[in-house]
Hints:
two-stranded antiparallel sheet, 2 strands, single chain
Amino acid sequence: xxxxxxxxxxxxxxxxxxxxxxxxxxxxxxxxxxxxxxxxxxxxxxxxxxxxxxxxxxxxxxxxxxxxxxxxxxxxxxxxxxxxxxxxxxxxxxxxxxxxxxxxxxxxxxxxxxxxxxxxxxxxxxxxxxxxxxxxxxxxxxxxxxxxxxxxxxxxxxxxxxxxxxxxxxxxxxxxxxxxxxxxxxxxxxxxxxxxxxxxxxxxxxxxxxxxxxxxxxxxxxxxxxxxxxxxxxxxxxxxxxxxx
Length: 245
């Protein structure tokens, strides 16, 4: 009896890329916990960037599988668990870390809990109803979109000391999370542009340029990040409105 239902490098290679996405999401959680324990800001900022690295690996694993002709049911199932950990749980923990520090635990955990529940329902519906695994688009907002917004918004607006966002930034974050919770379980159809190399590669380059700008402490880092947020809004909110017309 085989230990795993995959064999040969063609099937293992995309699975290893998927596991890199999993490790990135898990490390994001660990870095948030470390920052909360030590009170340091840098680990929380690193946790935000790790969600984007998880997104890169998650975007290319399917492409790698198709390029090397190594698709497998095991890899597809593994990808769903990665989505839940890296793009539902990890951003939910980020939201918990940077908001409502003086409130009761139950209130502080409300939005992260709803994010996790919405993401679980979104991914469960995806597994049951989408035989094409997203190749022809998605029903409901992909979990990667809210994860990307949460990570970028928190990264850009972390205060100089500590990591609790300003009150207005928390309000914007909560409004976006609330909208995403609803959109994730909606019947709105979203395209899957990053399944196509012509779109996926430029998006990955956008992320890598942002990381380089941040690394070299460029004054353009903030506005580049805001531009990425605007693109996310276009996909999440503007596209459904235009499609209905």
